[in-house]
Amino acid sequence: MEDALWPLLTARIGAGITTQAFDAYLDWRTQWLQRCEPHVVIIDARAVPIRIAPFRQRYIDWLREHECALREWMIGSAYVLNSPEGHMLASLIRHGASLHTPFVVTPTLPDAASWAAGQFQERGHGEAARRIRAHYALPTS
C-alpha cells in the first residue's frame, strides 16, 4: 500500500493475500477516506487469483458501507488486471456494490497512472496530475 503520491493511493494485492492483510488494506482505505479529500485509488490485482469469494464479498460490503463517502471523495479507481476473468471480477464487484464513481481497467500500472492523472487534471488538481506524470515518466497532456 502506497500513499507517497497522495491524493493517489496505490495498492498491490498479491496471490498470497490473507484475511488479515485484506482487512489491513480495508482499514488503510478507510483511514484515507476519512480525510474527506478527493483522491484516486489504483488497485494492482494482476496476481490475485479469481477464486477469492470471501474477499470479494468483504470488499463489496466495505464499498456499500462507505458508499456515501466514496461518492463524495473518490474521484475514481483504476484496476490493473491482465485477464478477461479479472475484468469480469472488477465489473461484478462494482455492480454488486452499486459503485457509481469513474473507473477503468487497464493491463499496466503506467496506464492506470495515466488515467488517474487525467482524472485529477479534469477536476482542477493539476499539481497532483503533474506529480503522477513525473513519477511514472508519463507524457504531459
Layout of helices and strands:
Blueprint: E1 8-12, H1 19-33, E2 39-44, H2 53-65, H3 67-73, E3 74-80, H4 84-97, E4 103-106, H5 109-122, H6 126-135
Parallel strand pairs: 1-2, 2-3, 3-4
Helix pairs in contact: 2-4, 5-6
Word description of this protein:
The protein is an alpha/beta fold and 141 residues long. Helices cover 52% and strands 16% of the residues. It has six helices and four strands. It has a four-stranded parallel beta sheet with strand order 1-2-3-4. Strand 3, helix 4 and strand 4 form a beta-alpha-beta unit. Helix 2 runs parallel beside helix 4. The protein is globular, with a radius of gyration of 14 Å. The model has no long low-confidence stretch (mean pLDDT 88).
Number of strands: 4
| Main sheet makeup | 4 strands, parallel
Gap from first CA to last CA: 27 Å
Shape: globular
Mean pLDDT: 88
Spatial sequence of strands, sheet with the most strands = 1-2-3-4
Key traits:
single chain; 141 residues; alpha/beta; four-stranded parallel sheet; 6 helices; 4 strands
Structure summarized in a few sentences:
This protein has helices spanning 19-33, 53-65, 67-73, 84-97, 109-122, 126-135, and strands spanning 8-12, 39-44, 74-80, 103-106. The protein has 141 residues and is of the alpha/beta class. Helix 2 packs parallel to helix 4 (84-97) and helix 5 (109-122) packs antiparallel against helix 6.
